[in-house]
Amino acid sequence: MIGVKNKPTASNVVGHAMLTGLCFLVVFPLYWMVVTSLRPQEDFFKVSLFPSSLTLEHYIYALSNLPLSNLFLNTAAMAMARTASQILMALFAGYAFARWEFMGKRVLFALFTFTWLVPQQVTMIPNYVLVSQLGWLNNLAGLIVPSMVSTFAIFLLFQQIKSFPQDLIDAARVDGGTSWMILWRVVVPNLRAVIASLAILQFISAWNDYFWPLLVSNRMETGVLQLGLQAFFTQEGNLWGPMMAAATLTALPIFIVYIVFQRQVIDSFVKSGLR
Amino acid sequence: MEQELPLVSNLDRVASVRAVQRTRFNLSLERVQPYLYLLPAFALVFIWVYRPLIEIIGLSFSQWNLLPTAPKVPVGWANYQQVLVLPEIQRALINTVAYTVGLLPFSLILPVIIAIFTYGIRSKMGGIYRAIIFTPMIIAPVVVTVLWRWILDPYTGVLNAGLQTMFRVRPINFMGDPALMIPTITFITGWGLVGFCTLIFSSSLAGIDRSYLEAAAIDGASYWQTVRYIMLPLLSPSILFVTLLTVLFSSQWTFVHINVLTISSLRATTSNIYTVLYDFGFRSFNIGVSSAAAVLMFIGFGAIAIVFMWLQNRFSFYDS
């Protein structure tokens, strides 16, 4: 007991120092981004940690040179549609796997698991060809449909439904509930918290997705924020004020979501192990 | 009444036949139900994962330039032979190893050290630390790239300005000097990972049964012995898991930074296995080579994953 209590306190000082250092390493770049976006042009030549005054000129420049509202709407539509569909599909599939024993269950489950090992870069060419044949290049459908299922979401909801009290389902069944009614009236209401944090997680990853949009959209009107920011960067790489304004605006919605749902976001990311 | 009886019983019979039919229908519905629930997800997975996986094998044996009107010419193993000798791909493979090894300090070594040192810290600060160090994980990768490009700028960036005032060194061109580009991209990627990985290790340390540590303390174990013989072994499943993630995903994590930061003329310097696949596919439209490389990469990563899963099963006797 004594050893456990005393020795770690000595290391706790080091621990606190490490965490503080890490926090600084995280916060400073973000602070620098926001400060750059707000400081007047003449401030740029003398490097000072604090701006002499605050201005919105860079935001005005960024907004007038980048179709930000367009990109914003596209990104939001893509992220919301992907999230909604991924949750719905995962509910159905997770429910099926958790509730019934059926022929081929193990094979189907393995087929879903195996997709974890197939990187997008392996499937990108045939998928690009299919999307272009369907006429979905530069189109919201092309951004959404290929990512409508998330196997991670399926496994998460499968585990949750599996650990769900069987009595509740049995009681509903005795009352003559169909499986459809049980899903919506018993399972979903009880999984509300899990579904909410899963939705936040999937929304963030969809919002930040870069690789797939890079393939299927190459116009500003139909693109997403990540691509717009990249294009802006390639064109005006040295206009750091407007660049940082655009970057801040791109990160802002997710940052707000993060501040509001901080605990759920961290927990579900740590559980998911990145995907 | 007498005449009605048979009628009633007939009706009854009809009703009971219907009921049997209904239960039969219900039974068969009951039986297909799980498949119906699985159908949408499975159809999509088939179309967007398995169909392309099969097609890519076909494409890897043909020559094609992505134009719908152009023919796909079968060329046998020629693409695979090319993949094995193309200098671009060899370079990308070497770089991929460099990125992966370079990321391990950020995803594994530092996080394990921080998690161990901070084990047992119970203060109000805990939640704030967590929230802050996790933040880079949710910031869009393109934003991260652009942000670091600005900080590392040789002329106006704050890092070079700081280094110059403190050490009077000449401006360092982090993103233009070929020797520094891979370390810089690795650092930017690592910046996004450290906090997240630290939380993975912290959360698995938090699951450790305190009685182990107490027993060790009663036996007179020193702090370092506790770390070496109790914490590290109990962390080993997470260590294995994070190592697997780093090996499998380092190319995915570095992709954005490489693609956004590297100007065309220096692309060969920073390429990894994914950017080279992307360049062959969508810049030089050499679908055959890109597909053959994709097939080989898929097999390689699959083999690595299987080895790791085998290791995980071997070492899973540690409880946590």
Describe the structure.
The complex is a heterodimer of chains A (275) and B (320). Chain A has 275 residues and is mostly helical. Chain A has two domains: 2-55, no CATH class; 74-223 and 251-272, MetI-like fold. Chain A contains 14 helices and no strands. Chain B has two domains: 4-42; 84-314, Orthogonal Bundle (MetI-like fold). Chain B has helices spanning 4-60, 78-85, 87-117, 125-134, 141-151, 158-167, 178-206, 210-218, 223-261, 267-270, 273-282, 287-314, and strands at residues 62-63, 73-74. The longest helix of chain B is centred in the N-terminal third of the chain and has 57 residues, at 4-60. Chain B is globular, with a radius of gyration of 29 Å.
**Major pleated sheet of chain B:** 2 strands, antiparallel
How many helices of chain A? 14
Ranges of chain A where pLDDT stays below 50 over 5 or more residues in a row are: 1-7
Query: What's the helix count of chain B?
Result: 12
* Helix content, binned percent of chain B: over 70%
**Rg on CA atoms of chain A, Å:** 24 Å
Share of residues in strands of chain B? under 5%
Helix content of chain A: over 70%
The H-and-E topology of chain B, N to C, reads as: HEEHHHHHHHHHHH
Low-confidence stretches of chain B: 1-8
* CATH homologous group name of the largest domain in chain B: MetI-like
Q: Which strand order do you get reading across the main beta sheet of chain B?
A: 1-2
CATH class of the largest domain in chain B: Mainly Alpha
Strand element count of chain A = 0
What is the CATH architecture annotation of the largest domain in chain B? Orthogonal Bundle
Our measurement of the CA-to-CA distance between the termini of chain A, rounded to an integer number of angstroms, reads 40 Å
Number of domains of chain A: 2
Terminal CA distance of chain B: 77 Å
Q: Which band does the percent of strand residues of chain A land in?
A: under 5%
Sketch the major β-sheet of chain A.
Answer: none
